[in-house]
Design brief:
The protein is α+β, with helices and mostly antiparallel strands. The protein is built from four helices and four strands, in the order βββαβααα. The longest helix is centred in the C-terminal third of the chain and has 12 residues.
Length: 108
């Protein structure tokens, strides 16, 4: 599986209305750089904490995952989808997964 040159996603998180753009760019097969743009102060705080991710940052349980630890420290809501988007992009950029949209759809 070949990595992308840069994985970019737009996340519309729901009722908060703070859309985010997540970009993950490969440095080498075991390291990526993370860039996040958003008007959400907590997400921008997360952006300041997450500059690079390594291969071993991806394959740890959620309670040990640096992405989720930093999102908690930044004050992100527990159901914020931005940390998951970062993780999915990192997997794709490292060639560990294929890009496929994720959907949470509410039924009435």
């Amino acid at each position: 599986m070949k990595p992308y040159l840069m994985c970019k996603v737009v996340v519309e998180p729901g009722i908060c209305g703070f859309k985010a753009e997540v970009e993950v760019k490969r440095e080498n097969s075991k390291k990526v750089h993370v860039y996040i743009k958003s008007e959400c102060l907590q997400v921008m705080e997360l952006n300041e904490m997450l500059h690079t991710l390594g291969l071993k940052d991806i394959f740890v349980p959620p309670r040990e995952n640096i992405i989720f630890a930093c999102s908690e420290k930044a004050g992100c809501h527990a159901s914020c989808p931005i940390p998951l988007a970062i993780l999915k992009c990192a997997e794709i950029e490292m060639g560990l997964a294929l890009p496929k949209e994720v959907l949470i759809a509410f039924e009435s």
